[in-house]
From TrEMBL:
<dbReference type="InterPro" id="IPR036291">
    <property type="entry name" value="NAD(P)-bd_dom_sf"/>
</dbReference>
<keyword id="KW-0560">Oxidoreductase</keyword>
<dbReference type="GO" id="GO:0016491">
    <property type="term" value="F:oxidoreductase activity"/>
</dbReference>
<dbReference type="InterPro" id="IPR057326">
    <property type="entry name" value="KR_dom"/>
</dbReference>
<feature type="domain" description="Ketoreductase">
    <location>
        <begin position="10"/>
        <end position="195"/>
    </location>
</feature>
<dbReference type="InterPro" id="IPR050259">
    <property type="entry name" value="SDR"/>
</dbReference>
<dbReference type="InterPro" id="IPR002347">
    <property type="entry name" value="SDR_fam"/>
</dbReference>
<dbReference type="Pfam" id="PF13561">
    <property type="entry name" value="adh_short_C2"/>
</dbReference>
<dbReference type="GO" id="GO:0032787">
    <property type="term" value="P:monocarboxylic acid metabolic process"/>
</dbReference>
<protein>
    <submittedName>
        <fullName>SDR family oxidoreductase</fullName>
    </submittedName>
</protein>
<dbReference type="InterPro" id="IPR020904">
    <property type="entry name" value="Sc_DH/Rdtase_CS"/>
</dbReference>
<comment type="similarity">
    <text>Belongs to the short-chain dehydrogenases/reductases (SDR) family.</text>
</comment>
Amino acid sequence: MSSSKPFKEQTVLITGGSRGIGAAIAQRFASAQMNVVIHYLQSHEAANAVARQCIGSGANVLTVTADLRSKEQIERMREKLEHHGMVPDIIVNNAGISHYGLLSDASEEDWNMVMDINLKGTFLVTQQFLPNLISQKYGRIINVSSIWGLSGASCEVLYSTAKGGINAFTKALAKELAPSHVTVNAVAPGAVDTMMLSGFSDDEKTAMQQDIPAGRFGSPDEIASLVYFLALPESGYITGQIISPNGGWHT
């Protein structure tokens, strides 16, 4: 079932849209000259730079800041979007942080931070904008997960747990929203050439690439293309799926 609103007139909200995969997703939707909302926390200049690129593609763009750990700030974000007539038809829950280290060295604060931004933020943002999707009987929710949410990773237990939670959230919510013609899917990238790899040494990156059958890291643009595909009206029969573009690293 498709929306009565043409795809180009729909609005997409990308959380964590100021850099990396989030910025590439914003630019991909902007290339279709859609309404694009770029969320960020503190990276004001970076978000504005992405916004300028999107405007250059002919998109209608709004930047908005909110701490996704705070229900009150997300409510204010929703009010701002309503004021500007940019309530999202497509929600891309991309914002997230990583954590690298032994579980025995992780603090309770580390746990709370990773869970709050990656998992709680996805819950709060989705919940805040869900009533509109249900009432219009159409919508797309696309959660950016990780290969580690599927396979787990040594020294990334907190991050793997949070992303695994997003995968379960995706599958359960897809069943809940299917009668409302709202699809819910997750994209679980493998190693992608972004700042999230900055914590690895050159030797570690080389070893990682050698383990990937494709022999290279993915690009943010490749992930953005998959997100865009899942948002299309003709992708309405795809829901509850965890799709992992990873170069054959995990099958």
